[in-house]
């Protein structure tokens, strides 16, 4: 990794000490116009989502909190280095010098790229070894960079918050791996596949940091100015709306109207996933509420009916329910983005706004919004296909008996990979 | 809600795709001058305070952590949608188009508006049902918008951090509700009205995020430039000072000098509440220290003597002690603001600074600082009156036996509203 | 403290209401160029590291979580007030008016200054009383201000993230105190010097917030523009690299390849410490990876071999292992900075970039990079000397029997200084 970085990676103009000269040549009047000040606060919010958000969301199992937060830490730290290289080769390679230049936007993209693999980890939680996770991440990041190149560069889709490239891809990638790695005797660990009171409170830390910072996630790499502003507002509204429908459905579905922590921890976030593509468009505030309203319902029903169905009939064990939180809302988000793009209109966006939002420049200058909508839908399908096929292949690689995966009666148990103390045995 | 948003809510100029044209027409040289970059980092800090800060602060009860953080999540997500509408009607309605335009400042204000109801929840924690909380929030947000309109628009007070409009109002609103809902047999749940070791550590997460981000809370909607800068510094100093006096008083009050976690979790924050109004004024750094010093003492004494007194003699059960953390320091903060405003001086502020700080423009161009001080004091009284009267009315509404509130021996118990696991019974 | 603030401390130009005039006189075109918008997001990240990061990192002991997070809160809140005064006297005293002016950069520096004492607390955790901690902080902040003045102003070193002035100083300061306060009978509390499952999860909150926000820590007070941008990138890479080597070494060192939570909680951060000085230099991305790679290894080996060695042969009890996380990586970071500075080159930095980065202006205009490297190395030695000598003196002061320190069999126990509830006894 160090050698590859040595050969390829350099600072970009805005983080290089030559910035003073670059600034003068480009008539930039002030240091505050360095991209750092546009994006660094959003970067830190995304960073918190990746490490604390995803990490603590996966601490809910009674005896797998170390593995949830610790392996999340490991694979994100590994994935982001590999992502800087892979995304650099596909997006930022300077053909003259053969170098990749990185700045704060590259760091955000690297974090996004890890998110795909972390989502896949959600489906595998407790059933794989850390070495297997590194393999999942290695291939996951590579596949991500390729599908992102196809969707964003070749098909010229817009996908600021990654409904397609992150959530739909990551979700189906994890599900396909989990399907290949099906364990018929997993019921031997059934007693550990649940939470204790305080592990659920830890998981709420993850939920809340994901929920709060999702507007930053969806706006982090959108256009400067109104693009970032609008994406944040839309995501904020969709998320608020998801919470209400999740609570309502969760309460109605249980006998005596009790709420289920699993729904509150997960389905409340579905609105943010589904707004990933459309957040930067002029979807209108009430459009955002409608998206959040519907995905909250769909995601909660997913936890109630789809996950048990998948496990029973499709032999697919999905520990965190990534199907309901990422795969399905991500796919929906991709199609919502296609519809909103196809419905875009110069009277709503203004001529210049339309060009800025969809980046209709260069070879794409004459593309119509209808065509753009079609390409957005095609992009969603590409993401799902990459997830399913790539996941199946990686799953078969992981079935070689060399990776040290846990036995069927040792799943969901930190004792296999961590030094634990005496009182650990009391957690059941 | 979706219909109301559809009819009324639109993006403002800075989040609309027409921004490119707006920027050109208004001679704005760079995207970085979009209000998003002035306020978004502060917005995210406030957002963390509302959801993680308030939420985790209320996890301290041994068997009500789900309810503390979960219902906080629910009512904040509901409240902010309603707040965008209510505040829009009173503050941001364009009389020509009949539309409300929203931007990042609206989101901050919506979060502020929820804070009032969340403070009220602190007094009611463990004794009401989620449906009752939604009613509290519905009326709380509505009352908030009205009193805010009277105080900020009609009386033209300044109240950047909301000592008056948020803390004094929210505190007395919650206390009045709690007083009406007095439960004479609450002692039947007494064994659950306390903490276990780890629930106190969870509550410290809330305390620390509130404490750290309070400078952002008080500076989030102040004037660009020196206003935000000064408000953050003043709040930072007042909070630091509160911590020291809280620890000192807490230690002196207990036998053998031991510290009480309840004081550390709550009274350390009183300095931020009391600086809510005066933070943007030239109160001077040592003035901030004095405010923090005094409120730390008053708030800790409140926990030691006033809360037991209220419960015993006024029949007022205040679970989190919002009287000591919000109501009293908020009221003090309002009067401190009045004094500092009345003492403002051109030699300290400069002529232009005075106009900017107090917004002496338009019909208020000739108001003197003395008059401004009087109006600030009047605003504080308005906030308290709204809280007490509004809270009493809402309390009576909540006494109808249709809301599913818990029985006297089931208070402070998550089992009533949440699915809990087996080990839950061990928490006592 | 209030009196001292009243005599000395004033707002600086950018936080004073005279800012409108100052802006006009200095041809600043927009409010966004107020230093607040350059630094406030970084300040809040640093603030989170000090209070949540350091605080929760020290909650890992099974029965000392209150003390870990609570006393951290106390001494940081005390230290930052004292730091504003001490650093002001040495750095920001206006000789004409006799006043210290403060702005957002002063707040960041005050937080940095506290960090030195909090690091020292890590070595003393569980073995000292809160009064002793206040003494440690009082002297720690004072010594910090003096050594910082010598290193940054007299020797004209660059040390943006404080490898020398914060980590090397703070680490050796704590170790020297702990060495003087050696307790031969500490084994009587041995049963409490360990973690339970959930206390380790709490500590991960601290680890992750430190890890995520370290790029902000190292970039918070670097030059506007490219300086902040580059420092953040370098630190991000070094940290990611540390995580991988820490996991690898931790797994290899244990029988059956199990991971040790102590390593994951601490050694993963060593890369950030070691990049403290060099982060703003053109160390190149692969240089950052190399630094993180090496310090991850060294720090983990420290936990495995050096800490037990120190305890056994040097009679030095280091509760949190600050030697491995702060002292040694900080010292290394200082020397790495010296080497990178000595190797600086106009072709890499450009003439202007070199002047900006090393601040070769005024009396230092003719200093060569080689000389600068020598001074950087000298600065590191000054920091270590201040830590060791200052710590020894403070240690002897703390041996007077007037400070209420816990008995040998009451160490690591919250019951001595906190009111605790009944279930506390079960934690073992």
TrEMBL record, chains A, B, C:
GO MF term list: ammonium channel activity
Subunit structure: Homotrimer.
Similarity comment: Belongs to the ammonium transporter (TC 2.A.49) family. Rh subfamily.
Family annotation (SUPFAM superfamilies): Ammonium transporter
Membrane topology, record value: Multi-pass membrane protein
Originating gene: RHCG
Transmembrane segments: 46-64, 71-90, 102-124, 131-152, 164-182, 194-213, 233-252, 264-283, 289-310, 322-344, 377-398
This protein's UniProt keywords: Ammonia transport, Cell membrane, Glycoprotein, Membrane, Transmembrane, Transmembrane helix, Transport
Role, per record: Functions as an ammonia transporter. May play a role in the elimination of ammonia in the gill.
Domain of life assignment: Eukaryota
Compartments where found: Cell membrane
InterPro entries on file: Ammonium/urea_transptr, NH4_transpt_AmtB-like_dom, RhesusRHD
One GO cellular component term noted in the UniProt record for this chain: plasma membrane
GO biological process: ammonium homeostasis
Residue ranges of domain Ammonium transporter AmtB-like in the record: 36-400
The protein, known as: Rh family, C glycoprotein, like 1
Keyword match Transmembrane: yes
